[in-house]
């Protein structure tokens, strides 16, 4: 886990221009990776642009041509990395589409982008600029994907139309953050064992999310009235 | 929002001994509040035990009698504050019980405990001890509550028995974290306007969570087969 595969990089670069991001260069990637490494070792408080530049093998002048400040560097790195979801396949079923979305988010959170997001969440408690970027980096990319998943399912007749379909993004991101950031066993497995703890989380979450969206599942019906 | 009400404090103090926590004293509370304030101003990296002691109006010797180190102080404060959920009412319905659980978690996350958790999540990216405490402080108290909510609903026949009922805790905590920590509008409303943005989140989340648990809601049925 962790490092993005070549195919993901290519897919991300391919989507980049459409989303207004400059195309990655080797030097940009080195700066992104160096930022993640230095953050992980030193935290946001201990990070200096000089340390990042040195780690990336570039001059601080080069760094400052791309990023105006330390804050700008960290925010930009998080947004670019964390919002790089893979391509969104149309699997033809709600379960397939939802699994792809969950898996993609799990991979993002378990990788270097996830470590950046850890740091951003921490700093956002006392840094407004960093607080504002969290939505852009974490929620917004999933909100678009979730809307597409719901629209396809409604179009196929798999589920009835939903009010507040954006809540799906909160459920997808939130449950993944809860499992991968807040639950220690899962977090530790992700860095030690090979198999992703994200996969275990997905298997458990999927039936709940399918029912939440109104899809019929094999859960036996209670045969009772709704609670009010 | 933010400050706990007197009745919450009393309720928390009343539950304290049963959960093995020492009873709050005025000095303890002053240290907890000072820790939250200093963390919010300076972040974890900038916090010193001397600054916390000074803010609380106690000597550093007094602080060290209660907490062995800065890490111990922050972890202990977070666990104590964030896990102080209110009493768990038995409302007689799944919707009522779930609303109470969501509201309680929202109040915790929007208050001082939430700001501490922000900081802990950030530091947990490069501090194992802090990473381990997140489960204790955030997930575990909700897991117990969620299990009770599900058990009552199954006993009443409101929902069929659930596998992996602990997933409800991830959905409750995760969706609240997503709405209150990661979505900027919600986070800012919580600190400026009076009315809680948690209430808005609860209203939107509730129908999804009820369906996720297998409760019948007024969502029209799709009349189709499950997606697999």
Automatic annotation (TrEMBL), chains A, B:
This is TetR/AcrR family transcriptional regulator. Transmembrane segments: none annotated. It holds the Pfam family TetR_N. SUPFAM superfamilies: Homeodomain-like, Tetracyclin repressor-like, C-terminal domain. Residues 1-26 are annotated as: Disordered. It comes from Streptomyces siderophoricus. Residues 48-67 bind DNA. Keywords: DNA-binding, Transcription, Transcription regulation. InterPro entries: DNA-bd_HTH_TetR-type_CS (IPR023772), Homeodomain-like_sf (IPR009057), HTH-type_TetR-like_transc_reg (IPR050109), HTH_TetR (IPR001647), Tet_transcr_reg_TetR-rel_C_sf (IPR036271), TetR_C (IPR011075). Residues 25-85 form the HTH tetR-type domain.
């Amino acid at each position: 886990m962790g490092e993005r595969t070549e195919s993901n990089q290519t897919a991300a670069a391919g989507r980049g221009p459409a989303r207004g991001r400059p195309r990655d260069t080797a030097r940009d990637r080195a700066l992104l990776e160096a930022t993640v490494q230095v953050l992980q070792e030193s935290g946001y408080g201990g990070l200096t642009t000089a340390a990042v530049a040195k780690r990336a093998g570039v001059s601080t002048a080069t760094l400052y041509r791309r990023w105006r400040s330390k804050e700008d560097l960290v925010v930009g790195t998080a947004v670019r990395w964390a919002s790089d979801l893979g391509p969104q396949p149309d699997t033809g079923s709600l379960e397939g589409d939802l699994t792809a979305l969950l898996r993609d988010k799990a991979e993002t959170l378990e990788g270097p982008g996830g470590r950046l997001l850890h740091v951003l969440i921490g700093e956002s408690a006392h840094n407004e600029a960093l607080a504002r970027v969290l939505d852009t980096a974490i929620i917004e990319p999933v909100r678009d994907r979730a809307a597409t998943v719901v629209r396809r399912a409604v179009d196929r007749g798999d589920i009835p139309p939903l009010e507040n379909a954006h809540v799906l993004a909160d459920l997808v991101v939130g449950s993944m953050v809860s499992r991968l950031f807040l639950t220690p066993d899962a977090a530790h497995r992700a860095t030690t064992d090979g198999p992703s703890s994200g996969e275990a989380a997905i298997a458990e979450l999927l039936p709940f999310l399918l029912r939440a969206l109104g899809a019929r599942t094999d859960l036996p019906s209670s045969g009772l009235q709704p609670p009010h």
